[in-house]
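Dig into what follows:

_____
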Amino acid sequence: MNSQQHSFQGQWITAEEFCNLKPVNVFHRQLEPIEINSLAPKNSHILFRKKFKVKSIEKTYIFISADDYYKLYINGKFVCQGPAPGYPFHYYYNKVDISDYIKVGQNVIAVHTYYQGLINRVWVSGDDRHGLILDIVQDGKTILSSDESFLYDYHSGFEAIGKYGIDTQFAQKYISGTKQENFFEMDYDDSQWKRAKTKRYVDYELFEQPTKMLVFEDIKPFLTWDEKGVTADFGAIYVGYLCAQAEGEKGQTIELLFGQELNDDGSVRWKLRANCDYRELWQLSGGNDALNEYDYKTFRYARLNIPPGCKVKNIYLKARHYPFELKVWPNVDDPQLLKVWDLCIRSLKYGAQEVIMDCMEREKGNYLGDGCYTALAYAIVTKDASPLKKLFDDSLRSSFINKGLMTCAACSFMQEIAEYPLMMFYSMYSYYKLTGDKEYLAEKYDQLCEVLDYYKENYMQENGLLSKLDKWCVVEWPKEYRDGYDAQLIEGK
C-alpha cells in the first residue's frame, strides 16, 4: 500500500432515501447495550450508471469505495468488487488498473452497491451509512468523479426471504427479467433513472486497502439428473456463487438448496451444522435467464429442484478468495498427513476473503483470536503477511469502543472475549520473526502498552491472574490445570 493516500475529487453519492440520514452510532461495550434506531431500508441493492468519453488510451486507474459494498462494471464487463470492511474513521478504498476495460470514445461505468442494514460481524452496517465514491484517473489527470450527474435506481430483482447464521446474510429470491437486470450494458435504457444525491452527512476518512483484491475461479460440477431436478457436486467445499442459466414459463420458480455434505439418503443437507438454512429461490422471466447471486455462500453441493418444462444449463460455481500462492510444502509422504495438510491449506485459501475468517457462513467475522492462528498460518505458507498486519490494525482501531479491544473488528456486532486481545501479543511477535518488520512493532508499541495497562488496572490480581471480568472467557481449562483458580464462563458473568 502506498503511504501517499489518494485525495478524492469525487463526492459520496447515494439514493434519495439515504442522502439526509445522519449516521447511527452502533458502537458500545457489549454489556452496555444501546438502542439503535436505524431508519434506512435494509437489503438495498442500489445501482449507479454514468457514460463518459475517453480521448486516448493511457494508463488508467479507478479509485473506488462504497458502503457497505460494491461490484464494478465497465463497458458491460465485471471488473472487481470490495472494499474490505473498515470503521468510518479508517475506511478502505481500492485502487484498480482499468486500462484494459476502457476504450477511445464513449464508455459506461456501472456499479452495483449494497446496504445490508443488519447488525452483524460482516460489515459496519445498520448505521444508515450508504454511498459510493470514485475517481477515474488517466495519466495523472482525473477524467471522471462521482457526483450528482450519475444516475441511480434500485435493483428490484433481489427479494429477502429469510436470514442466515447470526443475522449474517439475507436469503434471497432472485427474480429474473426485472428492468434493472442488464444495467451494466452500454445500450441499457436508463432514461427513467433518477439523479444521484450527494450524501449530506459524511464522516469517512479514506485509506487504500492494504491487502490485495479478490480473485475468482470457475468450478465445474459433476451433475446427477433425476425427474425432479439436478444435484451438482463441485468436488470440495468452496466459497462463492452458484451460476446457471434457465428457460421456462414466466413465473416458474426453481428451488435452490446448498450444502457442505449429503444426508444419508443422498439428498443435499441444506440445513447446515453452522446454523444456516441454505435455501433460496429463482423466479424465471419466460426468456433465457441467468442466475445472479450478490452475496456469497460456502458449499460443495447445490440442488436445483426444477419445475416441469423448465430447462437448466451451464451450471458452475464462481469461487472467490484472496490471491493464494503456496510457498512452502510438507516434508512428509504419509498419505494421511498429506490429507490433513490439504484440508488445512484449502481452509486457509478459501477462508481468506475480505478478512481472514474461520467461519465463512455463520459469522463471516474478522475475529482477532481466530485470526491470530489462521492469519499467521496464512502468512507462513504464502509469505504474505499483509492480512495478518491488517488484522492487528483493525483490532487495535477498536480501542475507541473499549481500551481492552473488541473481539471482532470492523463490524457493527459488539463482542468482547477476555483472552483474544492477549493472544495478539504472541502473534505480533511471530509476525516480527517472519518479516523482520521492527518498525511496525515500534509503531504499535504504545497502543499495545495501553491494552496491557487496561487489563492490569481493571482485572489483574496480585498473583497476575485476571478476575472480575466484564468479558466472556471462551476457554475452559480442565480442572487439573486450574491451580485452584476458576472463573464464570457464562457470557456476562
Notes: The longest strand covers residues 229-247.
